[in-house]
Design brief:
The structure holds two protein chains of two kinds. By secondary structure, chain A is an all-alpha fold. Among the domains of chain A are: 1-265, no CATH class; 268-523, no CATH class. Chain A is 74% helix and 2% strand. The longest helix of chain A has 36 residues, at 525-560. The radius of gyration of chain A is 36 Å and the shape is elongated. The mean pLDDT of chain A is 88. The N and C termini of chain B lie far apart (62 Å). Chain B is elongated, with a radius of gyration of 23 Å. Chain B has one domain (4-53, 68-130): Helix Hairpins, CATH 1.10.287. Chain B is mainly α. The chains are: A mainly alpha, B mainly alpha. At the A-B interface, helix 8, helix 25, helix 26, helix 27 and helix 28 of A face helix 1, helix 2 and helix 3 of B.
């Protein structure tokens, strides 16, 4: 499995060159990659169906205290998602080639979509918590690239950033949750964690772990109120919307919670949070879908509704709900993928996606129309399609809820009525009725663009009529993986006349009714309120947050980085004083035991001389020459101090350097005029206080450190080794040129570079020529 | 323990910090000279002052005569003095050059580019809010 993922990433990066080889045929060549992965995953299906799982592990980061494995885990759940990702991915690569044919960015599209595919596949088959996070973030990142595909448009950039910020912040929360869970159990592999559910649920950190992981899942899977980024992401090219924002990436949150259900689920908190958010999302977005006329917006909100349904099912936490989840995820991927691709084909061939401007296309685009009709019937839940099987079992699961079954089934039926109407809108309006003049002369889409919808629609029929083809092979292991224990069930189209069937008929009738009054309904006041409340306000909240952060950053920049150097300096110095002073006082405490008894007469004389020249420097601010002479006296004073304390080399160096320093400063002074201090007295007093505080802190620090016991180990080593090892009698020199020779070489290089820089600063003109 | 050297180091440090905060680049540079001197003295004191005998090994012997001054801080400070001189030369050349280019050694005036007066950072910060997000 590692090879499969690595291969997808590798070929993704080579896609632009592959494009140079095959040009228009590239889509057909690259589609072999997801197809091959699909076949490879399919080959595991019998093994998984027998109740087995597969783990493969490679060490990635390996340290004493922490290790991350690049490990993969295949069970019913990951197999189902893997098949969806690679199967639909095959059609998307073909479709993208047709949809973006002639675009200069097509090679880039192939790269990004394959990178996404590898990341998404990684999310669902990774076993290690950290690997899951890495792949998860890669999907956010590639999604950013794909949403912002038409990067010339501001709207695309805005939507891409919105998706990245919302899912990225959620992803970070999830990382924190995963790490907490890893430390709580000591297990970093999902396959091992699945047996640790009781430990996690009874752990003191259960609630924080749950909330953090939910934050990641809810943002990624567009649960209300984080759902706004998904409809905004519809600015992406349609193959991207069909793949990322319907069939795969937005289901990552659903996958994560389904994966973690045996570990985190079965508690009341879980049921209320996951079920509650899911239920709110499905109701809100189902009716939001009806307030738009753009096919992609309608489909986007119906996708959010489906994600809400999946979350609700995970929240229910019953055996039946797990079966419903598996069937619903699978059927949704097929019909929604097909509908999105058809919507893109309509946009591509007719020039608009607005259902009010379309009509009667079935004669011009017969294959697309047929595929769309079948997919929409599946989405509306009409027999004998797979969507009907899915809706029946969802209703059955809702009726079997342990908490408030009446509320849940009522909400589910009301929401599904809107979805039936939405299904009718996206098919009947564009394809049936009277023909309408479209911006482009419409004709059937090319083979690459209709094969995907046609195949997916056909599968909806096949699995609807013959559900036994996949129930024990794929659905059963997937549901069992979510449930955490083996299950036994079978799917069938006909259940006899029971409550779910009656509710289905009710839903259908309601949906047809809503469709007939859709035009006035869309313009009605309650619908407008619904739209502004649930679609516009979350976006405004997002804008307010982002603008608030920008203003905060702007304010902070104006205060801290206002362009005045003296301001920067005093900020840095005050911060350093507080940091050092606080640490010093809290860790060590003051040491103050002055004794002037052993101070020699020389030291007294030198000290008085140094302090006096400091006084001269500060008092004679108007005479720069006096100041530099004062600074020179300080330097020479220090040289004498070094000398009387046994540091002859130091004293020599100090004298030489101090002499050069004074000469250099004076040379520059000749050319630069005097600057009168214009600062206010307040500023000067403030600077004086800062300076005195710094000086006192310096003195106290030296007192405190010198009061500690002294470890002369290194000094003694140098003294003992100096002659025997380095044959030098001046230990300081031996340290510099022998023991620490590399340091000294670095120092020489620094001085040489400074010299070059000085030469350049003085000699070069702005245009690079040498000054005369 | 020596009491007078920490006080001297603190006094030089305080004077250096005060000069560092002056508007004139030249005074700032003199401040830097004082600060590096003060830090060198602090390092020297931290290595403990015990004797006036330099760390030298007499001819015919393999060890210096005990007691001898700690050679390690001396080596460190020697490096620091030389590097400090490099820094000083560079800072002075920068001050000189900025005076030649900008006509001032006042740090508060450096914001103003003589050729393009509209790009002063202070006046420009409001733009951050207008950027599209």
């Amino acid at each position: 499995m590692l090879i499969m993922v690595a291969l997808i990433f590798g070929i993704a990066l080579m896609a632009p060159w592959i494009f140079k080889l095959f040009r228009e045929k590239t889509g057909w060549v690259l589609a072999l990659l997801p197809l091959g992965s699909f076949v490879y995953l399919l080959s595991w299906m019998p093994h998984i169906a027998d109740g087995n799982t597969v783990t493969q592990s490679t060490a990635w980061v390996n340290m004493d205290f922490f290790s991350v494995n690049l490990s993969f885990y295949l069970d019913g759940l990951s197999l189902m998602f893997g098949l969806i990702i690679t199967g639909i991915g095959t059609f998307i690569v073909l479709y993208g080639g047709g949809y973006l044919s002639g675009s200069a960015y097509l090679p880039r599209f192939y790269s990004a979509i394959l990178l996404f595919m590898g990341s998404m596949l990684g999310v669902v088959i990774a076993d290690n918590l950290i690997s899951i996070f890495v792949f998860w973030e890669l999907t956010s990142f590639t999604s950013f690239l794909l949403i912002g595909f038409t990067h010339e448009q501001e709207n695309s950039r805005r939507s891409a950033l919105m998706a990245l910020l919302v899912t990225g912040i959620g992803g970070l929360a999830m990382l924190a949750g995963l790490i907490l869970m890893g430390f709580a159990t000591g297990q970093w592999e999902v396959s091992a964690l699945l047996n640790e559910g009781d430990i996690v649920r009874e752990h003191g950190l259960y609630l924080p772990i749950l909330l953090l992981i939910l934050a990641g899942a809810f943002t990624k899977s567009a649960q209300f109120p984080f759902s706004f980024w998904l409809p905004a992401a519809m600015v992406a090219p349609t193959p991207v919307s069909a793949y990322l924002h319907s069939a795969t990436m937005v289901k990552a949150g659903v996958y994560l919670l389904a994966r973690m259900h045996p570990v985190l689920g079965f508690t009341e908190t879980w049921m209320l949070l996951v079920g509650g958010f899911g239920l709110a999302t499905l109701l809100i977005s189902a009716w939001l879908a009806l307030s738009y006329t753009d096919m992609k917006q309608i489909l986007a909100y119906s996708t959010v509704m489906s994600l809400g349904t999946m979350m609700m099912l995970i929240g229910l936490g019953t055996e039946l709900a797990m079966q419903a989840l598996a069937v619903y995820v699978f059927s949704h991927a097929m019909y929604k993928g097909a509908l999105f691709m058809v919507a893109g084909a309509v946009d591509h061939e007719a020039g608009t996606r607005d259902v009010l401007k379309l009509g009667g296309l079935r004669a011009l685009m017969p294959i697309s129309a047929a595929a769309a009709a079948v997919a929409a019937l599946s989405m509306a839940g009409i027999p004998p399609l797979f969507g009907f099987v899915a809706k029946e079992i969802v209703y059955e699961a809702s009726l079997g809820a342990t908490l408030w079954p009446v509320l849940i089934i009522t909400v589910a039926v009301i929401a599904n009525i809107a979805i039936v109407a939405a299904s009718a809108i996206v098919v009947l309006r564009p394809f049936f009725g009277t023909a309408v003049e479209t911006p482009k002369k419409a004709h059937e889409a090319p083979l690459s663009m209709w094969i995907g919808p046609a195949m997916l629609a056909a599968l909806s029929v096949v699995f609807g009529v013959l559900p036994f083809l996949i129930d024990s092979a794929l659905m059963l292991p997937a549901a069992a993986a979510v449930w955490g224990a083996p299950l036994d069930f079978y799917l069938s189209l006909w259940h006899g006349i029971n409550l779910p069937l009656i509710l289905s008929i009710l839903t259908l009738a309601g949906g047809i009714l809503v469709y007939r009054v859709w035009d006035p309904l869309r313009e009605s006041a309650p619908m407008k309120v619904w739209q502004s409340g649930f679609a516009d306000y979350p976006v405004r909240g997002y804008d307010a947050t982002v603008n608030g952060m920008l203003s905060l950053a702007g304010w902070q920049t104006r205060v801290l980085q206002n362009g005045l150097i003296s301001n920067y300096l005093s900020t840095i110095i005050i911060t350093a004083l507080i940091a050092v002073g606080y640490t010093f006082l809290s860790r060590s405490g003051l040491v103050w035991n002055p004794s002037f008894a052993d101070v020699t007469i020389y030291e007294w004389a030198l000290s008085i001389g140094i302090v006096a020249s400091l006084g001269i420097i500060l008092a004679f601010g108007h005479s720069r020459l006096t100041m530099i002479v004062g600074a020179g006296i300080v330097g020479f004073g220090l040289a004498l101090i070094y000398l009387i304390h046994g540091a002859a080399d130091l004293a020599m160096t100090q004298v030489l350097v101090e002499t050069l320093t004074v000469i250099l400063v004076v040379l520059v002074l000749i050319h630069v005029p005097k600057l009168k201090e214009v600062r206010s007295t307040t500023t000067r007093v403030r600077d004086g206080v800062i300076a005195v505080a710094a000086g006192v802190l310096m003195t106290l620090l030296i007192f405190a450190v010198t009061a500690l016991p002294f470890d002369a180990f290194i000094s003694e080593f140098y003294a003992e080794a100096s002659y025997p090892l380095a044959h030098g009698r001046n230990i300081v020199n031996v340290i510099l040129v022998d023991f620490r020779a590399l340091d000294t070489m670095g120092e020489v290089i620094v001085v040489a570079i400074a010299g070059l820089a000085v030469y350049a600063l003085i000699k070069m003109t702005r245009h690079g020529a040498t000054q005369k | 323990m020596d009491t007078i050297l920490p006080i001297i180091a603190g006094a030089i440090f305080a004077s250096g910090i005060y000069l560092l905060l002056r508007p004139s680049l030249i005074l700032t540079i003199i401040g830097i000279i004082l600060i590096s001197n003060s830090v060198n003295l602090a390092l020297f004191t931290l290595g403990r002052i015990s004797t006036e005998n330099p760390p030298l090994i007499a001819a015919g012997s393999v060890m210096p005569e005990v007691p001898f001054a700690n050679p390690l801080p001396q080596a460190l400070i020697l490096t620091a003095i030389v590097i400090g001189f490099g820094l000083l030369a560079f800072a002075l050349a920068l001050a000189y050059r900025s005076y030649k280019e900008l006509g001032t050694v006042d740090q508060d005036q450096l914001l103003k580019d003589p050729e393009d007066t509209s790009t002063a950072i202070v006046n420009n910060t409001d733009n951050t809010e207008k950027r599209d997000v």
